[in-house]
From TrEMBL:
Organism encoding this protein: Phallusia mammillata
Superkingdom classification of source: Eukaryota
Cell compartments where the protein resides: Cytoplasm
Stored CDD domains: RWD_IMPACT (cd23821)
Listed PROSITE patterns: RWD, UPF0029
Record's protein name: Protein IMPACT-like
Pfam families membership: Impact_N, RWD
Keywords assigned: Cytoplasm, Repressor, Stress response, Translation regulation
Length: 287
């Protein structure tokens, strides 16, 4: 989402005043938020901030500063969070837009960040209240029951836990790309899945007419995980299937082991519910 303040003239270069104000702002932000703040692309002045990493409401805020910020245009930004529902997203983006309009010509990053931190803090407080009053069972992260979906079924695998991080696979038959978003939205209606730190997905759909595959993946913030999972689907030669692996981060970095757990979760749920059984038989018949 990009928000801009329209003016008659558009600066095509960064004035020294804009540049110095940007440098001062970034130095201040990086000193305040330290490990939460990181540089994505210094040349293009792109940065990201991770908020609430040790909570169920982790959020990534990415900003890119235009050359004429803050004098004319505001930064462009994106907010990434698998648990963030459309109404909440619309509300928080509206707040950020209002802050930008109310502070035209001024540095706004600190105000934006504090708005998001307050938003996440409110979510955490609500969650803690529900947990304290027995409304949420946070100990059991396994989604027990299969979910009906327009004639198909979303199956949920057994969770894998390592150093406080938990991984769980979900699989469903799909025959067209439009179903992928529908299934993902259905999965996110489950609070436990919506609160996962990452919901990594990959799918392969076979077109009988063209004899080709439609396939894609999404890391959901877990860099390279989606591509690895799609490669697994290709190796297993499965078709007309969508796999989602939820990860609840436990506060301890797992390094490369996280990819092993993600692929194991995907393979296990596929095998358990018969999506690769025929392929196994087929491979044996060729020996």
């Amino acid at each position: 989402m990009e928000i801009g303040i329209k003016k008659p003239k558009l600066k095509l270069f960064c004035t020294m005043d804009d540049l110095s104000r940007q440098v001062e702002e970034i130095e201040a932000i990086s000193s305040i938020y330290e490990n939460e703040w990181s540089v994505v692309d210094e040349f293009n002045r792109s940065y990201e901030l991770r908020i609430g990493n040790k909570t169920p409401f982790a959020l990534k805020f990415e900003v890119t500063l235009p050359t004429d910020y803050p004098s004319i245009h505001l930064p462009s930004f994106t907010i990434s969070a698998p648990w963030l529902k459309p109404p909440d997203r619309k509300a928080v983006e509206a707040k950020i837009e209002t802050i930008g309009k109310d502070n035209s010509g001024e540095n706004v990053l600190f105000l934006w960040i504090e708005c998001l931190r307050e938003f996440v803090d409110d979510k955490v407080r609500d969650f803690e209240w529900l947990k304290a009053n027995g409304k949420i069972d946070v100990k059991e992260k396994k989604v027990e029951l299969s979910t009906a979906y327009e004639g198909s079924t979303i199956y949920h695998g057994d969770p894998i836990t390592d150093r406080k991080s938990t991984f769980q696979g979900h699989v469903v038959k799909v025959t067209e790309a439009l179903q992928v978003k529908t299934v993902l939205n259905e999965l996110l209606t489950n609070r436990k899945i919506a609160n996962a730190t990452h919901n990594i997905l990959a799918y392969r759909i076979y077109n009988e007419k063209t004899k080709t595959y439609l396939q894609d993946c999404n890391d959901d913030g877990e860099t390279a995980a989606g591509g690895r999972m799609l490669h697994l689907l290709q190796i297993l030669d499965v078709k007309n299937v969508l796999v989602v692996v939820s990860r609840w981060y436990g506060g301890i970095q797992l390094g490369p082991d996280r990819f092993k757990h993600i692929n194991n979760s995907a393979r296990s749920v596929l095998l358990e519910h018969g999506f690769i059984q025929n392929n196994d038989k087929k491979s044996k018949s060729h020996k």
